Amino acid sequence: MSIIVDYLIILWGFLLIGLMGIGGFFMFRKFLKKMPKEDGKSVMDWEEYYMDQSKHMWNENEKLLLEELISPVPELFRDVARHKIASKIGEVALKKNEEMITQEILIEGYIIATPKRDHKFLRKKLAQKDIDVTPYEQFFDLSQTDYTDNWQDSYKNTN
Question: Transmembrane residues, as ranges (predicted)?
């Protein structure tokens, strides 16, 4: 009986260490996003800036489309994904000097904001909505790392 209790205590210890490691990993990622870059603002500061600047540009149809597109994201991470993607969509709209966020801007920003591994879900959702992805193939061909630093230069080079 004593050996079983010893093993349970050891397993419990490994479980706690593993869970704390996972939690620490996500906290560290959040910490890195709050670190200021060369311009003095962090990634999260820029996300907030673009959200605030583009808040008035959203129509109800685009909000509903965004909600539909992020529906494959697990519920636990959906708010974070929505914020990151919406801020990138706002950034694209502002850089193009658009008055309103259109479906085209939304899809382009969504592709830019998501990693390559999530593009298959996006393609599937767009196919369900009968939206042609042909005009956006150039964005699908690039990975997210190509966008993060100089996405505007990459965008100009593909056009």
Answer: 6-28
